[in-house]
Fold:
Amino acid sequence: MDSNINQQVVLYDVTRLVNRRRAAIPTGIDRIDVQLACAVFERFGEGCLPVVQCGSQTVVLQAERPVITDLLNNLKSVWFGNGKLSVKLAKRLDWLGISSNYGTGSRKVEKAGRKHLSATQHLLLRLRLAAMMLVRKLKIILRAASKPDAIRTKHIVYVNASHQGVIRYNQALFRMAGKARLDAVCYIHDIMPVELPEYSRDNQGEVMQMFLLELLRLHPDFVVNSKATANSLFDFLSAKTASGDTTEIAIEFPHIVYPGVDKVEHDSCEKPVLSGGNDKPAVFVMLGTIEPRKNHLMILHIWRELVRENFIPMPHLHIIGRRGWQVENVVAMLERCPSIRPYVKEFSDLDDQAVCRQLKSCRALLFPSFAEGLGLPLIEASQAGVPVIASDLPVFKELVADGGIFISPTNALSWKKAIERATQSDIKLPVVKLNPQLAGWQQQNRKFVDIVEEKLQLP
Structure:
């Protein structure tokens, strides 16, 4: 890197976004990460450089910055509008040798996409992936052989909004920074893997704990998506510091920057048409990845009970979201329970407009989660003018100013009664009104970037 570089540099970790370059359907973290990334790059211009973790090597993409900013703008246009993924841009990134996957962000999605390929197409794809991996390995060897100097600057502010990337590798940031002062701003979406490990995949709790403790060494500014997450993170870090698991430092309460809530404008779903009238069955929607903490199993058992009791009018259930991990019991109900099959439908790859149509034509959103860092489906339902029946989680009550029906996620009987009551067409359900602190993306992005700027200006 040139010795005349700015005295201060912002490094934004784009590892996750590079690995999602072909992902048409974003996750909640994807949406937040790309919004904050675009805002940070726009504010700091050439003083902001992308950084990725490539295998065991940390790579600052100074020369490739224009390609990365093109990627960010493309993903934002797709995930927040009617844009189309750039195949040309994805291919350019393939040959940079900075990613270990094909860019959908999910091996399961990649495998599913290959099922419809002919034998010749499948062979060509395998050859392409092998060539990409060879290029990646060669570039790693070349980078290692060149032994690049540490970044020549006096002050680095590392920014991460994805829970992934450079910070996951012990000492990687310090090796990269060299003698420069190193600070960090990190956006935390939740700490459920350490708080509720029973709802996470194996070892995720340990990985999350190492991630947070590595960050603590940087004395970072933590930014979170809700007061509920702020309380959980503050309590966890305070306990770790008090127990001696990390260097004793003063733990400051995290900054709260809610995800942006902008007006949804989809021409195809302007007016709500609630189900349950004109002899049409009432439709309820569950929105989100199928995973243990989402509590799909309880709802499916309720539907089976309604069928057994010959409940009239029998409601329908639409489950929107891909199948996740440790959900064998849910999958068994969906695939091998004949009594609910006529009344339960599963949708795994709906775009925003299709989700909007589903929400606006349903009777209510069902959101019975055991735990959430925020709860974007609740926000989406409110934007669609649709009633919500949700768990009585603190974060849900934080998001809601008025309306909504809140029930303990362990009280199946109360959930069943609420669904039965909501099925009746003459019952008017309350629509959720959101907390006015949930502002649009422009305002929320400005809050986040201001925090980065304050960190950059520290003496």
User: Anything to note?
Assistant: The first strand starts at residue 8 and ends at 13.
